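Wed. Picked up where I left off yesterday with IclR family transcriptional regulator. The coffee machine is broken again, so keeping this brief.
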Amino acid sequence: MQQSRRAFCPAHLHSGAGNRYTVQAGTPSGGEVKKVAEDKSEIDSRYRAPALEKGLDILELLATEARPMTLTAIVNRLGRSHGELFRMVQVLEFRGFIEQDPSNEGYRLTDRLFSLGMQQPRTRDLIEAALPVMRQLASSVGQSCHLALHTQGEMVVVARMESSEQLGFSVRVGYRRPLHQAASGVILYAFQPEDVRRRWESLLDPQLPEAELAAFRVHADEIRERQVELTPSKFVAGVTDVSAPVMRGGMAAAALTVPYLKKLQPSISAKETAELVRFAAAQISDQLVEGDSRI
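Structure written out below (tokens, as returned):
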């Protein structure tokens, strides 16, 4: 999801001699306004890297597009020239961040960025601890399960375990949804301190209306009390999402979820599945606590 870049905007501006320049209430003089504008422009320029920004603009654009984009389309969308972006596209392709679709010569993202994120020690250790427990959970309930993390106001699936049953439902790795639209997202949000919750709320795109946000907060508090979410899927009929938090340091590091598919033949119930999901999430959490204590 493309996030808007926030300009660097310090609370106060200082001149090289240490004099403070601020725009006070009322009508400032032309010289004061000019000095503040010049100082702010100078500060902004120190936090700009034009070549890097071009590359990031290309990656963010391709991340929002369902189909490959030609160089001409990229140039037009970003409002730049072929000369500015041609070499940047070549470098991104050479480094494996984008690839060319042979059918239309358009460019699309590879999974390179996702793979880099998965190589972080904390994430890698979490997945390594979770997979054996997830395998046992999938076997016990006869359903698939997956592990999700938070990223930029969304939940993203980083690992999954298929059921051994011939009939089932699973979510692919890389699947993402805004926090408030998925059981995993609500679980991740519910088990965070207030300052983290507010920061995550600011990342939601689009922003939630005030009434909807208030309802989301109340729902999250209710989930925090019962320690598990059990709710019909908002996207697939007949599936009930059962989710519980994987805790680390008093906060949810991940959400463990079973997309429970109701079957006609006798099977374990959704409520029984919820208890097993809670137990499995606690098992993973215990390993993370032990791992953290050795660092």
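Quick read: DSSP finds ten helices and ten strands in the chain.
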